[in-house]
Amino acid sequence: MENHDTRRSRLDFGMWFGVMVLFIFCAADMAVAQDTSLLSGESSTIFRTMQSTNNDTLAPAYEYLHFSAPNLDRNGRFSLDVGGWGRTDLGYRSTKDYHDGDLQYGYVSYRGPSNNLAADLGRQFVTEGVASEKLDGLYLRSDFKAGFGAAAFVGAPVVTEPNSGGGSLIYGGRLTNSMSKYYTIGISALKVNCDGVNSREEEGVDIWFHPLTQIDIVGRSSYNSITGGWMEHDYQLTYSPRNNLSINANTSDIKYRAYFFNMTTDVFSLYSATNRTGLLDPNERAQATGASVVYSPKKKLVLTADYKNHHHAIAGDANYFGGKATVLLPEGFMTGLSIHRMDGSTDKLRYSEYRVFTSKKIKRFDFTGDYIETSYDNQINGVNNSHTLVGAVSYQIKSGLKFSADIDYYRNPYYDNNVAGLFKITYAFDARRGTEGSAK
Amino acid sequence: MKRFLSTVLLSLIAIAPYAYSGTASIVKKHPVEVTGMPNCAECHTDKWQSFNHKAANFYDKHRFYAQDQRLACAACHKDSFCSDCHAHKEEIKPSDKFAGSPQRNLPHRGDFLSQHMIDGQVNPASCAKCHGRQNNEGCKTCHR
């Protein structure tokens, strides 16, 4: 029996879909009237076949649709973007429902000719400082004098699971000061209200420094006002002394009590006296420090070496290091190799990873091969290695129309000799009508 | 801090009509067609030269750029590009959707069923960024 939230979710989806289809027709009508670019879009029809954990053969079919009407008015200030997918099972049920779907985004947008003025209304992905959220609502931003800028958003969080406690209202904003050649520094905040209670209150500081051509520093610190502690510090430095050489350093520090507070996915819930099924220790702290060097001795050859140390207050340490080489050869041939080692303080955290991939373009065909192996120092479910082999081919039937297929073979501690397949037809179009020609 | 932020935000919104910078907006569409993964430094000598998509750590850094300069991203990328990975509800992992692009940094390649149990212990925050509050129906299949 479906509950109230499930029904509400379907009603919301239906309402949004209907509104967006209506907008598309309006957009098409207006754009034709204004003699401007009408509509661009892409359809991907996907058929998959694979085995479930019960050895049932699953055959879900998907349709992904994306539409964009970039010029709803004469000056191209208003636009509309809509995207979503639907799935039906041709064989056994692949999830809890035989049919499912989602409106991924759907919003009307206004872009001002100056001040980077922007206003978006609808389902959208907002990324502003501490906010990296899908919401149904309104987003506004603008630049101001003296290098200042501001953004604000308000709406309803887009939640996936019924009864997930994802909240009913989200709002926040970000203030920035920028000197275009040298830096941008921002402060941001967001708040989520769930059934009259504030379930999230986060503030943050973010930076982007690029004082010299060779130096680029980005990072962010975020604070949880409800728990009263820092959630995360994450900073990355890139130094590029030459065009073909880049040296990178990164550091991050995550405190579980603040970071995982009120996560709605059970596996990320914190253990407490009132939540004894919680899996994460609130006193845990994960710190990571790493570096990488990227060197391209020749234009077609890229070599990378990387290292990262993971330090945990409770769970112990681990070092992850390795290298990668990518070669681009003439006539559409590309190949790469990577080797990495995880060396940790527990049995599970000791393994080696190997990967080889290659692709070749022959006329309208693209062929790809990808092999990944993980070799465990200690067996998992009695298995020493996991293997994944992917073979893919695509054929460009004509401009905008492409067929692709891939087959995956994998063997790992949980599946023994399993095969999965995926077939995809992609059709992209960019309709433009004028007062002459096809519109007549 | 919250009151401070609220006060500053409201003040700025109130004075907005009188304090516009007057600068031209970032173009809605990049004036030159860009194909493949570009190194923006090949043309740009300003701050956009940081956007070297070929850099090994661009995948790690792109979230910082997106949180700061979303309009710049939008000059080349439509929302459909972001939603290939950043979905609040999705059933096909990105590396399966784009198996023909082995050079792309796509999450969950290879034997992810085994690997996520290991990676999840090392850095569960890396999982929670996408699955902590959304896109978690797959998680709930096992993690009830």
Query: Quick one: overall form of chain B?
Result: globular
Mean pLDDT across residues of chain B: 83
Kindly name the structural category of chain A. mainly beta
**Rg of chain B from C-alpha positions?**
19 Å
- Average pLDDT of chain A, rounded to a whole number, is 87
Low-confidence stretches of chain A: 1-11, 31-35, 433-440
Q: State the end-to-end distance of chain A.
A: 53 Å
| Spans where pLDDT lies below 50 across 5 or more residues of chain B | none
Percent in strands of chain A? over 45%
Ends apart, CA distance between termini of chain B = 37 Å
Mind describing the biggest β-sheet of chain B? none
Assembly state here? heterodimer
In total, how many beta strands of chain B? 0
How much helicity do the residues of chain B have? 40-55%
Question: What are the secondary-structure elements of chain A, in order, as H or E?
Answer: HEEEEEEEEEEEEEEHEEEEEEEEE
Q: What would you report as the Rg of chain A, rounded to the nearest angstrom?
A: 25 Å
Number of helices of chain A: 2
Number of strands of chain A: 23
What's the shape of chain A? globular
Can you characterise this structure?
Chain A is mainly beta. Among the domains of chain A are: 143 residues, no CATH class; 126 residues. Chain A has 2 helices and 23 strands. Chain A has a 22-stranded antiparallel barrel. The longest helix of chain A has 31 residues. The radius of gyration of chain A is 25 Å and the shape is globular. In chain A, 36% of the residues are buried. The N terminus and C terminus of chain A are likely disordered. Chain B has 144 residues and is mainly α. In chain B, 44% of the residues lie in helices and 0% in strands. Chain B contains 8 helices and no strands. In chain B, 29% of the residues are buried. At the A-B interface, β1, β3, β4, β5 and β6 of A face α1, α2, α4, α6 and α7 of B.
